[in-house]
Amino acid sequence: MLIAVDIGNTNIVLGFLHGQETIGTYRMTSKANHTSDEYGLMLRQFLTLSGLEPDDVDDVIVSSVVPKVMHSFRSSIIKFLGIDPMIVGPGIKSGIGIRLDDPKSLGADCLADCAGAYYTYGGPVLVADFGTATTFNYVNAKGTIVSGLIAPGIRTAAAALWGETAQLPEVEITRPDSILATETKTAMQAGLYYNFLGGIERTIRQFHDEIDEDFRVIATGGLGSIFANDTDLIDVYDPELMFKGMAAIYERNAK
Questions:
Q1: pLDDT in tens, the chain (255 residues)
Q2: Where does ATP bind (predicted)?
Q3: Residues 207 and 103 in one domain
Q4: Is 114 annotated for ligand binding?
Q5: Which of 5, 90, 186, 255 could form a Cys-Cys staple with 62, CB 3.0–4.6 A?
């Protein structure tokens, strides 16, 4: 069994993978400063919840965009599982080309997303990840990332809204029943949702306008499910896209 770990700005997401099947996924916050022992205990508990033992784990692969978490988390894997994990980063074999001005600036999460999309759905493909940040990365038919776009995620934008205003409350990020809001909470929800949805659609259309070939749009990320069913411009929503990408990268590098 392979454990794939996505260390993001808001959450750490673990996927327990048996071949092509995901047999368990778990989340913990990446905001807290946990020790290696705390991470290790949580990891052992997640294994137990899936009916697994540490000896069932063959290897671990980690994708991280939070350097300050890496030392403790990597140490927890070494201490509690006896495995030095594979890290997605510069020098790792992914089979995905990167034709950007500074290839090393591409986040490990974006590389894993693009690998998952290309190897699962083929290319060309536009990969949209809705997380703390919203990213769009274009992978051409040859499996090369040729363009990337970064924008605030909807929760990040929402936090700025209620954090920088004196009287606006914190609200749940959800699809409102109507845009015809009649009180503050629903006015904020409708404003956030439709403003963000409009931005998604305009961004995808602009890619279509500037790219002279047909492509599919694959969405992922914890917040992607909110929007994927409300627009015809997203072809597939795949919440396990990053795990699929990490599994593919692992197969290319495992001895």
A1: 999 999 988 889 999 998 878 889 999 888 778 899 999 999 999 999 999 999 999 999 999 988 888 989 999 999 999 999 999 987 899 999 999 998 888 999 999 999 999 999 999 999 999 988 999 999 999 999 999 999 988 888 888 888 878 788 888 888 888 999 889 899 989 999 999 999 999 999 999 999 999 999 999 998 888 888 899 999 999 999 999 999 999 999 986
A2: 6-13, 132
A3: yes
A4: no
A5: 5
Residue 134 forms beta bridges with which residues? Answer: 130, 151
> Which one of 61, 87, 113 terminates a domain?
87
> What is the value of pTM for the model shown?
0.89
9 is in an annotated binding site: yes
115 and 233 both lie in a single domain: yes
Q: Tell me, yes or no, if 109 is annotated catalytic.
A: yes
Residue of 84, 102, 109, 230 with catalytic role: 109
The reply to whether 8 sits in an annotated binding site is yes
- Please confirm whether the linkage preceding 103 is cis (ω < 30° from 0): no
Segments forming the whole domain that contains residue 221:
97-246
Is residue 58 a known part of a binding site?
Answer: no
